[in-house]
Write a structure and sequence with these properties.
The protein has about 525 residues and is an alpha/beta fold. It has 19 helices and 15 strands. It has a 7-stranded mixed β-sheet with strand order 2-1-3-4-5-6-7, with helices on both faces. The longest helix has 19 residues, at about 85-105. The radius of gyration is 22 Å and the shape is globular.
Length: about 525
């Protein structure tokens, strides 16, 4: 039996990232970049398998034993996550797996790939139990490393995007050009490698019919984002604000395959900004709306308030787009401007109303602790959220995610960052957001947690949910809000005062290149 060339691992660690929210409420999504790298390598003649330890809830020792049994020539630890910020928090689950693998088989060759890795490649090499890292998006680097291993090459300077060791020193090769043909090269059509029965949607996506959380799948139609919000790290592995699109035919063909093969009706569109290019979105939605099963579909997707066109909303809804997640971020226009979100209050209110009138539900995304925030502006944000009364809301505290402009700012100013990678998770015990000039990290986190319970316990919200989804969904939300997160920052003595300390970081600074 021929040796397996490549085993790709999606790390778990939900309990570190979400505490006890991860058991039932959070989504479990198919790992996009495992699929994309696998498809790229398979097309070039290599044998590949995927081990989704997150979906199958396998601990480090179990994963290490399976890796030993499968005996791949190369193991790829993929830490992209299911949204840009999730890459760093996934490091909390990846580290113990890597160490367990190396303890069991020190000779196992390992490459680490992901947004976090691309933002901090040298630090990743110095801190993790790996042989290689990737400072780009991954597929080309992994493929060419396999080729170099085939040839027994000792000089790896020709493998684009590879971070490696030579004579005890970490070397970085220039990242390869971004893959241009997404349809042919980044199709990700390796669904048979995944445990499809384990994936589930977020609870809110299926309000009114929680049983429809499974089967579930997430797909992408674009990569990258042309914007440069200060808190976002999406373009870290791409090193540019370039925006690439798949063909509408291929996107809808993949949806059709998943519907007919696995019975998937509940989907997430992973794109950081799905509702952006009108021609692209309209072509996808027109094809989906023509499907005989369009009325069965339940998609959610991201959008910006300033890219949503009211005259296209009925088309989106007819294609099965039932939820749009809007990056509203702040109730203060001054704070939104500082975050490069120059949106007018009346525009936000008007667009949300138009989306709801079209029969599409809205998730409002809000951030507390942006650089210009104080307690009054954070209160404005919560007041706006309650006024909009969206069907669901996500409340975040501002984080200096590696690869974001905020991270560069935090390092330059010597602000104290989380001690562990799990501290970059919004829901972890050791979560540590950024302070601002006027509020401490503890005050930001306390405000965020209080805002969550204030919003979801508001009678106005609960009455809307009861009328729209029924009493069972209301009871589900009331049960959800009975869980209160423990926070190390709030429990520790003296956490109310500002804390800043120099940050040692060996990584190169992330820079944004205008589109």
């Amino acid at each position: 039996m021929a040796q397996l060339d490549l085993l790709l691992v999606n790390p778990g660690g939900r309990e570190l990232i979400y505490q006890n929210l991860g058991a039932e409420l959070s989504a479990i999504e198919p790992p996009l970049w495992c699929r994309l790298i696998a498809g790229y390598a398979v097309d070039r003649g290599y044998s590949v398998e995927i081990l989704d330890s997150e979906a199958e809830n396998k601990g480090p020792e179990t994963v290490a034993r399976e890796v030993l049994e499968r005996n791949p020539r190369l193991l790829g630890m993929v830490v992209f996550g299911h949204q840009p910020s999730a890459s760093t928090q996934q490091m909390a689950g990846a580290r113990p797996i890597l160490r367990a693998i190396k303890e069991l088989n020190p000779e196992q060759k390992i490459i680490m790939v992901g947004g976090h890795v691309a933002a901090l490649p040298e630090r990743t090499m110095n801190e993790e139990a790996i042989d290689f890292a990737c400072n780009g998006e991954g597929p080309v680097t992994v493929h060419q490393l396999l080729q170099a291993m085939d040839e027994g090459a000792r000089d790896l300077s020709g493998v684009p995007g590879l971070v490696w060791r030579e004579d005890g020193k970490v070397r970085q090769n220039p990242a390869p050009a971004l893959i241009a043909d997404l349809d042919s090269d980044l199709h990700g059509n390796v669904w048979h490698m995944l445990p499809m029965s384990t994936y589930r949607a977020h609870n809110w996506q299926c309000f009114g019919d929680l049983a429809s959380r499974q089967p579930y799948a997430s797909i992408y139609t674009t990569l990258g984002c042309p914007y440069k919000c200060s808190f976002c790290c999406i373009n870290a592995p791409f090193h540019t604000n370039r925006y690439r699109m798949r063909s509408p035919e291929k996107v809808v063909g993949e949806i059709d395959f998943l519907y007919r093969t696995y019975g998937v009706k509940t989907f997430k569109i992973i794109d950081e900004m799905f509702v952006l290019n009108d021609r692209h979105v309209s072509a996808i939605c027109q094809r989906l709306a023509a499907k005989p099963y369009a009325h069965e579909l339940n998609f959610w997707a991201y959008a910006r308030v300033d890219t949503v066109r009211p005259d296209r909303l009925q088309l989106l809804r007819s294609a099965g787009i039932r939820w749009l997640a809007l990056g509203i971020e702040s109730g203060s226009e001054h704070v939104r401007d500082g975050a490069e979100k120059s949106l007018d209050h009346d525009d936000i209110v008007g667009i949300v109303r138009s989306i709801k009138d079209a029969g599409i539900q809205v998730i409002g995304n809000y951030i507390f602790g942006l650089p210009d925030d104080d307690l009054a502006s954070m209160r404005q944000t919560l007041d706006l959220a309650k006024d909009l009364n969206c069907e669901f809301a996500n409340f975040y505290s501002a984080m200096a995610y590696p690869g974001s402009p905020l991270y560069t700012l935090a390092v330059g100013n010597g602000w104290e960052l989380p001690e562990n990678w799990s501290g970059f998770s919004q829901h972890s015990y050791d979560c540590r957001p950024l302070p601002t000039e006027k509020v401490t990290a503890a005050e930001v986190l306390r405000f965020r947690d209080t805002a969550f319970h204030d919003y979801f316990g508001d009678p106005k919200y609960l009455n809307m949910v009861t009328e729209k989804y029924g009493i069972e969904t209301r009871r589900h939300i009331e049960e959800m809000t009975r869980t209160r997160l423990r926070r190390q920052l709030l429990e520790s003595a003296g956490s109310s005062g500002p804390r800043r300390a120099p940050v040692q970081d060996t990584a190169r600074p992330f820079s944004i290149v205008s589109a």
